[in-house]
Amino acid sequence: MSKSALNDSLQCEKTSLPQPNLLPGSYQEAKAYIAPFLMPLEKYEACVNDCLLYRDQHSNLSECPVCKEPRKENGRSRKIFTYMPLGPRMARWYGTFNLCKLLYAKEIKVTQTGFLRDFTDGNICKSWYEAEHIFGDKDPELCVPLSLFTDGVNPNKNMVCQKSMWPIMLTWITLPPSIRQLLGPMLLMGIIPSGKKGAEPKSLDPYLSVVVDELLSLTEFPVYNSYHSAPMTVRVALLQYLCDIPAYSKVMHLTGHAGLRSCPYCREVGHYCKHLNKTIHISSRRFLENNHPLRNEDGFAISGKEKRGKPLPYTMEEEKQLRIEYERKPNNSQKANHQKSTGLKGHYILEKLPYHNRMQQMSADAFWRDLGQ
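RE: above sequence
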């Protein structure tokens, strides 16, 4: 229902009821009436080229210091990002008894069934609660591990504008699987607006920086635990990413799926096929066991025996150093060559999280690689 239709409906109802009455007579009156019960919103003006958000040290600028585009046009903001903070929603969840008790629900463990039911049965999830990891000294019910999803979508199915917005969503990993992916428990943090003529944003870092800053502030977060009727401190951490390969390339500054070094997990190099006009990957036999019979078969794109082993991933230190080298390149041409040879494009905002581990926390496109580990 549009605002004008709601206005007309409220006015009609208000005049139909005995006078005087307390029914709001307009949309604005109704919104002001329920405002104290709504979650707070934060609005940030953004550079039209997605260079930065006008906040913190940039809050008083009239133009972007990177691209020199003006902040406003004819007195109006050119681009606005609306953010829904996580902290108040966490406080409301723990403060509502029927929601808080879901965290204490006893689930059937994998040791009782012998089968992996969910990601939370895997070794990676269990490692979060070991002594040297992020949740080591906390009760599981007071830990909030989150997974992030973002991707370009076009809800209006207008093929002229391929990706008219990018939602940023968080999912509470340890909620019961039956409700975890329902619309209510999923946390929409904000919707990144599209660029000019519906183009996808040039960078996601300015918008994700708001999420990262709040996550850092929620490392130790005081709440009222309604299940125990006592104040407690919870710990919030972003520990999983559920994106497709194009979204990973934007979020984590990796080469896109069409590049020669497009695999985000290892150093495998693709081959450009001029007949298909695309990059293809024909080294699949390298991932087989060393004694697999297909390694000795003919008839593959790469003829003869395959003696090479599985391509190795970068270590965290190697990747960090390569990203530093990218940032130090003096011009775009050298940066492009470095990216082509390494598959990395430089630093990204999620590296500010002290527990961030890209290789371990990225879930593979279309399936959960970590489930069986």
